[in-house]
Amino acid sequence: MIPLSRPRGLWEAAVLVKLRSTLVKVIASTLRKGNVVEKDGKLYVILTAENIHPGKGTPVTQLDMRRITDGVKISERYRTTEQVERAFVEDRDHTFLYQDGEGFHFMNPENYEQIAVPEDVVGDAAPYLQESMTVTLSTHNGVPLTIELPQRVILEIVETEPVTKGQTASSSYKPAILSNGVKTSVPPHISAGTRVVIMTADGSYVERAKD
């Protein structure tokens, strides 16, 4: 595993060296969310992939991507038959343990090996990590590239406007702060101290927790 204390540029260069042997050319139309591709010497994870077939003109593949090293998001459009460099990575379930100065530490439940994932790889998922949570890590030769959390988590509302008599679930949502510090919007009948189900993708409210 590459020491995570290396400067960011060296870490990225080392990742690219290791990925060179497994980069293969694929046509753009086969790319899907979660795939890792190389563009101009940088590694990107695909956030969304859409094949567009206009009534006239050439079919294209629209990709929204995030650069793995610094989180910068870009959009690119390719002809559906255009070749793109894709990196094949390994996806495995890992259990979240703790966070320290080296990053976020996870354990492979099959062999108990631990891996530290840099903060910029975890990105916006960080607030939703919970002890013993199972996530999917994408790695190559032990180098973490992307992380996927469960779609939903249960959190507590720590701050929101008080419930007012006459408000119903159909009224406009109100702002609230979750126990992980993330801001969200909840129905007016939800009060502080209530446990709720939240989507990890965007922090949106789903329902009151049933536990």
TrEMBL record:
Compartment(s) of residence: Cytoplasm
InterPro entries named in the record: Elong-fact-P_C, NA-bd_OB-fold, Rib_uL2_dom2, Transl_elong_fac_P/YeiP, Transl_elong_KOW-like, Transl_elong_P/YeiP_cen, Transl_elong_P/YeiP_CS, Transl_elongation_fac_P
Keyword Protein biosynthesis: yes
Lineage: Bacteria, Pseudomonadati, Pseudomonadota, Alphaproteobacteria, Hyphomicrobiales
Organism, as annotated: Methylorubrum suomiense
NCBIfam families xref list: efp, PRK00529.1
UniProt keyword terms in alphabetical order: Cytoplasm, Elongation factor, Protein biosynthesis
GO molecular function: translation elongation factor activity
Chief location of this protein within or outside the cell: cytoplasm
Name of the protein: Elongation factor P
Family membership: Belongs to the elongation factor P family.
UniProt domain Elongation factor P C-terminal: residue ranges: 153-208
Domain Translation elongation factor P/YeiP central, residue spans: 91-145
